[in-house]
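Deliverable D2.4 — example input (structure tokens):
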């Protein structure tokens, strides 16, 4: 496909699918329930962390946690201890993540807000380079350390929430969280973080996006890893240097719609 045809395909797909009408297929649906910025960030932190598996299962799990936090995510997180969270969430499970994982995840956010004020401040404070890769490496190390300050027993299933680019992971869920927080508010993403430029973001890549990107000729890599994510982002940057990941939601939705039609 020529460069002009690719550009036309990307923009046409963006115009059609980058629309709140398609949020029902995305865990972002849960985040859009809130208008308070602290609640939005808290829910996004939760939803992106468990965004693996079928979309319906993810939305169901997020809603289950939100129902328990009926006073609102931020108030609940800040007004409960880790032990209280563990007791309240006992019995919850999302695939291989346990109730203790969720309790610790949310208590890490409480700690970050008490010590740094926000996740954005932590993310930006720890930057040792100009790339998202370097920032994410330090961010994930920091969160894992915080977890071990809060709890003597941190399971490997908790660390699954926070893979790092240096380990080779594509870090799909972390890059997705960054997209939600950094890209301007447009009915899909929220634009809460003002100190990270959208141009620095890396495409959230899983097997689904990898298949789409391969079919479009964006990558020849067979392994879904950080190098693939950077390779795909590099191609998209040619079509929108300042906001390369704006095509993520629309490409994913188009692919999901096509997949479900084929499976029907």
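Example output (designed residues):
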């Amino acid at each position: 496909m020529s460069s002009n045809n690719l550009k036309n395909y990307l923009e046409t797909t963006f115009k059609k699918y980058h629309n709140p009408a398609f949020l029902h297929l995305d865990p972002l649906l849960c985040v859009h329930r809130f208008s308070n910025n602290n609640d939005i960030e808290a829910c996004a932190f939760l939803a992106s962390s468990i965004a693996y598996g079928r979309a319906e299962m993810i939305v169901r799990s997020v809603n289950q946690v939100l129902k328990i936090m009926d006073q609102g995510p931020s108030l609940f997180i800040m007004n409960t201890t880790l032990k209280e969270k563990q007791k309240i969430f006992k019995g919850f499970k999302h695939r291989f993540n346990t109730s203790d994982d969720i309790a610790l995840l949310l208590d890490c956010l409480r700690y970050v807000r008490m010590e740094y004020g926000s996740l954005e401040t932590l993310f930006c404070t720890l930057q040792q380079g100009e790339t998202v890769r370097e920032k994410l490496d330090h961010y994930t190390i920091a969160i894992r350390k915080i977890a071990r300050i809060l709890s003597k027993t941190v399971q490997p299933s908790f660390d699954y929430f926070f893979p790092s680019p240096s380990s080779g992971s594509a870090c799909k869920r972390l890059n997705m969280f960054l997209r939600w927080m950094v890209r301007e508010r447009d009915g899909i993403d929220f634009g809460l973080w003002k100190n990270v430029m959208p141009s620095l973001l890396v495409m959230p890549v899983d097997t689904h996006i990898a298949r789409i990107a391969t079919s479009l000729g964006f990558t020849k890599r067979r392994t879904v890893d950080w190098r693939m994510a950077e390779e795909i982002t590099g191609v998209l940057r040619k079509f929108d240097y300042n906001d390369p990941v704006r095509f993520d939601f629309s490409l994913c939705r188009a692919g999901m719609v096509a997949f479900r039609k084929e499976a029907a």
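Strands lie at 93-94, 97-98.
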